Amino acid sequence: xxxxxxxxxxxxxxxxxxxxxxxxxxxxxxxxxxxxxxxxxxxxxxxxxxxxxxxxxxxxxxxxxxxxxxxxxxxxxxxxxxxxxxxxxxxxxxxxxxxxxxxxxxxxxxxxxxxxxxxxxxxxxxxxxxxxxxxxxxxxxxxxxxxxxxxxxxxxxxxxxxxxxxxxxxxxxxxxxxxxxxxxxxxxxxxxxxxxxxxxxxxxxxxxxxxxxxxxxxxxxxxxxxxxxxxxxxxxxxxxxxxxxxxxxxxxxxxxxxxxxxxxxxxxxxxxxxxxxxxxxxxxxxxxxxxxxxxxxxxxxxxxxxxxxxxxxxxxxxxxxxxxxxxxxxxxxxxxxxxxxxxxxxxxxxxxxxxxxxxxxxxxxxxxxxxxxxxxxxxxxxxxxxxx
Length: 388
Known about the structure:
By secondary structure, the chain is mostly helical. The protein has a single domain, classed as Cytochrome C Oxidase, Chain A (Up-down Bundle).
């Protein structure tokens, strides 16, 4: 069996990196320079959909197909089943990228088959083990429903409905980061501090996790039912405060010598920032907060994805958990992309087309570095000779 199909993270982490490195410059060149897209969809909807269901979808699939065997003790997903679902993801991306050539129903059918296929693989071991993470399958179901709503909007030529579906889909991903990030960041930080013999412990304040999760669920519901209003702004402010209080427990400043740890904190800090900006935008209309969505998508989601992909790929290929200096640079480039995209227009006074191009350049550089360093290990056998 080729190494690429020996474990779930391999094809999907590689696919996520390639999608990020190819789609964003294509989108930026289309917006700023008029380079044609291969889709008949509104360009902004194409861009947002492929970031959510292409890039993020691949990362979520790779995470689940790698984590579920660890959670349940089941055999890892490999071989023909993995080839089938990864091939389905790739075909869906090609269909969307060339959607002007195909009926919308054909593109939608292919794209909408992917998340159920992942669920079919991970559901049996989770149920057999009665694993506490089984409710995370609701995340897949909710994302799938958001994708259905997106295509319904396209079918009815209702761009607002499609955009609304994407916003709710992003909320669902942010909830996933809140749950999973809230487990792995304090755990990995505590381990790193213990290994270094650093004084200071990672604390967990009673109730704050439940408040943060509840606030993110409430935010998703408000965006679903009463979007863009004062209710959503208030909930976003509460969520921002809860996320900031949660992060304050985790000894962030003591991780600064270890990029593989501090990048997790860097990703999570964008959650209270992005939620605070969303609250400011909805409650006050502040111009500086207008691009809150990119604080959450580039800053929190993309950075967390890169943080998890770089760490998991090292561990599951038998390598020490120490990132290459170029990957630490990639982490910073991604944060710079978020800063430029969020604050470039209102704060830095950069013209909007130049904001798009600069942010795209920084983003692309980050993912080119990821591919340069990680593609060889994702395509090769484990260095310790173990299966996987």
